[in-house]
């Protein structure tokens, strides 16, 4: 269940925003394409507003690049407003795992370990990502156009194509204009390579659900929290289980190891009213200028310092002074 990211996607991994978060802000209202108004933001707004009430069942294919490899899963998705259940097909790498969300928490069952991880719900994360797109459009950092999207899973869609100010496509979304459901999504890297996508192959907007569909009941399974995972991953990598104290106005959302080739690293993601940031522990030293370049310009700040043989890094959109303050709270 623990995902691994590479440092090359540092900001995306840190903020959980997607490769799109690395797009640079451009001049507002730049000629040569649609401006901040019009049907694009309206379609995006409808997609955002539909999330708490969407009700469907369906099957989708999800693929992402993990280092040199591409990982593909086929997922069965049940959604009833804030409640959601995801199962994986027998031929998927995650076969047997079951994920259930209820708006307050996310429970993920791994049969191989016979454990249930209790995590933060992903709905807020997705809304945050879509909200970031809307903000970048408003500020002129992204431009858009709307095309006919054809049919996805038998549903007529509109395709929203997002580009940087130079016209490079960074994101494509196929949206059902009637319901606001996102039926297909593609994320592209700076040279136009698709690094992640999902696509629904079946969808039913009139499903029948049982209350048991949105519960995980497994006697004998070990319940594992995010704090448990901090200790587990740190111990495996030989790190100290450092974290931002619970007394700070930020909530731990995710923790995972980071693939750095010959070096080791782990990341913790936090969010709060002021914004989002991540805390990294990495063996060895990382050049500060490289970190600043990877942060994607003025939207994200980086603060790093050395602790023995490790580099500790904070990256986020809460402001450099706040990152520096938080660095003094880590225990």
Give a brief rundown of this model.
This protein is of the alpha+beta class. It has helices spanning 10-15, 39-50, 123-139, 226-237, 288-294, 320-327; strands at 5-6, 55-66, 69-80, 83-88, 98-101, 106-110, 115-119, 143-152, 155-163, 169-175, 182-188, 194-204, 222-225, 250-260, 263-272, 275-283, 301-307, 310-316.
List the helices and strands and how they pair.
Elements lengths: L4 E2 L3 H6 L23 H12 L4 E12 L2 E12 L2 E6 L9 E4 L4 E5 L4 E5 L3 H17 L3 E10 L2 E9 L5 E7 L6 E7 L5 E11 L17 E4 H12 L12 E11 L2 E10 L2 E9 L4 H7 L6 E7 L2 E7 L3 H8 L4
Parallel strand pairs: 1-14, 7-13
Antiparallel strand pairs: 2-3, 2-12, 3-4, 4-5, 5-6, 6-7, 8-9, 9-10, 10-11, 11-12, 14-15, 15-16, 16-18, 17-18
Helix pairs in contact: 2-3
Question: What features would you describe in this structure?
Answer:
- With 331 residues, the chain is α+β, with helices and mostly antiparallel strands.
- Helix content is 19%, strand content 42%.
- Helix 2 (39-50) packs antiparallel against helix 3.
- The chain is globular and about 55 Å long.
- Residues 1-37 have low confidence and may be disordered.
């Amino acid at each position: 269940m623990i995902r691994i990211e590479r440092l090359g996607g540092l900001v995306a991994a840190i903020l959980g925003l997607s490769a799109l978060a690395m797009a640079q802000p451009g001049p507002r209202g730049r000629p040569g394409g649609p401006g901040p108004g019009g049907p694009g933001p309206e379609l995006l707004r409808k997609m955002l507003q539909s999330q708490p009430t969407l009700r469907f069942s369906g099957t989708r294919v999800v693929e992402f690049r993990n280092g040199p490899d591409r990982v593909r899963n086929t997922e069965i998705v049940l959604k009833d407003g804030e409640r959601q259940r995801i199962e994986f097909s027998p031929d998927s790498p995650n076969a047997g795992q079951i994920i259930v969300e209820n708006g307050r928490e996310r429970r993920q069952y791994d049969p191989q370990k016979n454990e249930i991880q209790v995590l933060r719900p992903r709905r807020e994360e997705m809304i945050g990502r879509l909200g970031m797109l809307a903000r970048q459009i408003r500020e002129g950092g992204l431009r858009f156009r709307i095309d006919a999207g054809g049919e996805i899973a038998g549903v007529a869609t509109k395709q929203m194509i997002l580009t940087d100010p130079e016209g490079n496509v960074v994101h494509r979304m196929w949206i059902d204009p009637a319901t606001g459901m996102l039926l297909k999504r593609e994320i592209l890297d700076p040279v136009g390579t698709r690094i992640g996508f999902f696509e629904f192959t079946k969808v039913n907007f009139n499903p029948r659900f049982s209350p048991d569909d949105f519960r995980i009941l497994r006697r004998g399974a070990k319940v594992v929290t995010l704090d448990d995972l901090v200790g587990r991953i740190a111990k495996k990598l030989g790190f100290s289980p450092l974290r931002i104290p619970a007394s700070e106005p930020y909530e731990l959302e995710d923790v995972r190891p980071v693939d750095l080739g010959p070096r080791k690293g782990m990341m913790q993601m936090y969010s709060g009213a002021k914004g989002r940031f991540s805390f990294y522990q990495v063996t060895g030293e990382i050049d500060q200028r490289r970190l600043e370049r990877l942060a994607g310009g003025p939207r994200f700040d980086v603060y790093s310092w050395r602790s023995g043989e490790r580099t500790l890094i904070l990256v986020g959109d809460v402001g450099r002074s706040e990152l520096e303050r938080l660095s003094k709270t880590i225990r």
